Amino acid sequence: MSFEIRPLSDALGAEVIGIDLTQPIDDAAFTVLHKAHLNYQVLVFREQQLTPQQQIDFSVRFGPLDKHPSQGKAHLEGYPDILVVSTKTENGKDVGIRNAGPAWHSDLAYMEQPALGSMLYALELPDSGGNTGFANMYAACEALPKDLREAVEKRRALFCSTRNKELKALHPILRTHPETGRKSIFVNPQLTHRINDMADDESDALLAEIYDHCRKPNFIYWHRWQPGDLTFWDNRCVLHIADHKRLDDPNYIRHMHRTTIAGDTPF
User: Fold this and answer.
1) Whether the model pTM is above 0.85
2) What pLDDT is attached to residue 117?
3) Among 51, 214, 219, 220, fewest CB within 10 Å belongs to which?
4) What is the pLDDT of residue 72?
5) Which of 37, 68, 105, 194 does the annotation list as catalytic?
6) How much is the pLDDT for 76?
7) What residue ranges define each of the domains in the chain, with the CATH number in brackets?
8) Given the residues 194, 236, 254, 258, the one annotated as active site
9) Does residue 264 surpass a pLDDT of 60?
């Protein structure tokens, strides 16, 4: 099986050219893809024509799937492993999660075992907008000013779900990737509630400094979706955000299917 892996930016990300994910992926090809995912943190598979089951079959090559807590209301009928991310409506009701990822975050960070990674498949796209930003938290960690690094070293933060406040977990602010051994920053504006064992005002000020640092343009790649893109990012070392500016526009249609690969406990 022959395909090309081409970097997308200096920050992170690569596109995979010339692979058809509707066909079986042999072990040698999978090894190359797995290594590329660890190296580039975000992979974009172009021009795919996937059925829901084919997306699931490819996803499980990387590990067992995780069900999103909202999936009971927003999963694809007949496919509980697929979360629908969509601005479409039927009979006046949203068919999926409309405003997914409005702030920088990593998926399911409020769980004891956050997601390893997520695959998002573009079915329908707007004529403009709807881009996704990805931020390299390895690079952000390595570039932390000395005072900030010392302030958060060995500290943990409390993460809470935005929808269900009972879903919460404590995780290290500087996380070690279980496969690469590299350190990354593991806090985010959407789901991190506060730094554990720290006064609220002190925690808020420190987190604000970290967030400002993580949002520096040199850490970020903005993905402009094309029809048939399947994008796979590593939640253990990447933050992402959806750029929605036209959610009230009935002509703004962004319809996608997401699978989520289960992860492990951060350390």
Assistant:
1) yes
2) 98
3) 51
4) 66
5) 105
6) 94
7) 4-128+224-261 (3.60.130.10), 136-214 (no CATH)
8) 258
9) yes
Which of 140, 139, 138, 175 has its CA nearest to residue 155? 175
Cβ-in-10-Å burial (0-12, 13-18, 19+) of 18 comes to: exposed
Of the candidates 171, 177, 240, 244, the residue annotated as catalytic is 240
Distance (Å, rounded) from C-alpha 81 to C-alpha 63? Answer: 13
Task: Tell me which DSSP letter residue 105 carries.
Answer: B
**Can 105 be counted among the known catalytic residues?**
yes
* 28-71: pLDDT as tens digits: 999 999 999 999 999 999 999 999 999 999 999 999 999 777 65
Residue 178: closest CA among 260, 239, 237, 111: 237
Find the catalytic residue in 66, 81, 107, 234.
107
Residues making up the chain, counted from first to last = 267
Cβ atoms within 10 Å of 121's Cβ, excluding its own: 25
Q: With contact defined as beta carbons under 8 Å apart, do 132 and 230 qualify?
A: no
As a whole number, mean pLDDT of residues 12-31 equals 97
Q: Is 258 a known active-site residue? A: yes
Question: Mean pLDDT, the chain, as a whole number?
Answer: 95
3-state secondary structure of 76: strand
- Kind of pairing between the strands at 14-17 and 42-45: parallel
Judge whether 107 counts as a catalytic residue: yes
Q: How far apart are the first and last CA of the chain?
A: 36
**The dihedral of CA 30, 222, 11, 152: what is its sign?**
negative
Q: How far apart are CA 100 and CA 194, in angstroms?
A: 22
- Residue 232 corresponds to which tokens in the numbers above? 């796979």
